[in-house]
# Entry
Amino acid sequence: VDVFYTESHLLHNPQEELEYGKIIPFHETPDRISNAVDALVRSRSLSFNLTSPTDFGLEPIRAVHSDDYIEYLRHAHAEWTNYVGGDPTRGVTPDIWAIRHISGPRAKPPPSPDAQTSLPRSVREGYARARMGWYISDGQTVIMEKSWQAIYSAAQCALSGAEYLVKLNSASSPPKDDNPVTSLALCRPPGHHAFRDVGAGYCFINNIAVAAQHLIDRHGARVAILDVDFHHGNGTQSIFYDRSNPLFVSLHAQWDFPHYTGHEDETGTGEGEGFTINRPLAREDCHGKDGEEHYHATLNTLIHSHVVPYNPTFLLVSLGVDTFHLDPVGGLGLTTPGFRLIGASIRAGVKLVEAATKRRVPTLFVLEGGYGVDDMGENISEVMRGYVN
Ligand code: SP5
Ligand code: ZN
# Structure
């Protein structure tokens, strides 16, 4: 399995996050990826080839995110240090947030404090404070001095994984064998809580949305996104809510972060009606052996009732392994063999689409959450093993 990965993620190194009023050690740590890479390389059951991403530039990111938001991410740390008086070693840790639906249509994105140097210092300070709460919606999504480089590179990993599948698919078309066409993007920071112009839940750029949009724009793809992270992929949902391509399907824990979305009655709007599918699971229903079976049964139903009938030409999986029963942030009762089953269920669905359409369905796995640094490598590896076997 080809894996897209870069050490640039190390540049995103917050030490602490604000969690329900307490400052705690940052969960979304560099060793998540470092340990996962070690585990993949050591894996005896499957061979993983690590590849550095290609640089596709800013354009595919701008196809999903607004220019003012991208500019903010690039300058946030300098604004924090220069105007807010923030501790540069702690990084931008917002504790004010624009509640946009309350602020209403009169609320405006605050301008950059660097744009108008003739304004009084106090006004520019005000802009900088307002901006951190406008563009970031919680205190976990911390921006360090060099975070942008990691954020940008993570999106390039997802794009590279997608582009690699396009190449592989056209090289082997029509396919003679039954070999899976798949790749894995080890993105850090993750992406599925990132909106068009708001970051949240450790996410800044929505890596999977950028890859999906690129496949649609450049390759005329019909994309299905299956999100199996513990948390609802609210950013991805929001970006594509009024569209019929991509399809967005999410299976997640009920009433946990991001707290307000992911209910079954969120099904899309306008042209997108019916192309967003949510299945929230109660945590109590997912513990123990029966619980794990319940999880897999629900996942299978989603794949067979929604992903397969959509006949996607590409499948993108938001792969969070924070559903692992020992995960310190999530935890939905899944065991390591359960991750292998997730991969196998996805592959079974893909094979049905391939049989119906006589075309391969290249499948890109994009890493989202997973915080149990000792286990996540093995769990990721098991998903891939389940998929390719
Ligand atoms: C990409 C992703 O998985 N983002 C998730 C962000 C969730 N942040 C966690 C918030 C609070 C978690 N507290 C867990 C403590 C349980 N002991
Ligand atoms: Zn998650």
User: Anything to note?
Assistant: The pocket of SP5 (ligand 1) is lined by residues 19, 140, 190, 193, 201-203, 229, 231, 257, 320, 322, 329, 368-369 (CB under 6 Å). The chain has two domains: 2-58+153-388, 67-135. DSSP finds eleven helices and ten strands in the chain. The chain has a mean pLDDT of 95.
